[in-house]
Amino acid sequence: MSTATPLTGKALLQKVKELAHLAKRETAKECGYIKTSASGGVRTDLSGFYDAVLSAKGVKLDETSRDSRGKVATYKATVHKNGQLLIGSAYTKGMGLKEGDVFTIKLGYKHIHLIQDN
Questions:
Q1: What is the pLDDT of residues 64-94, one digit of tens each?
Q2: 72 backbone φψ class: left, alpha, beta (φ>0; ψ -120 to 50)
């Protein structure tokens, strides 16, 4: 049976210890971390649960950067159908590169080294 309002702080940590034998999703439900969708469906709020556990343990998350950070470089690239590999402007700007900069490409086994020419 889940609680009406989500547990927080020491009460949450104590309940998590008591329910250590349950799956994470069930533990979150028992601690009150559930959401109701517009269509009336009920689902587990694992994100809210994990945030509350971290907060109860004293881990502070930077809330100001959440959802307002825009595009962030992921350090992953995909080869396109035409065989080209595109490196986005976030990387070139981050390195201070400008149009016309020249690189030497060195191939290794499953990796590429880009060495900027002086």
A1: 555 555 566 667 788 889 999 888 887 888 8
A2: beta
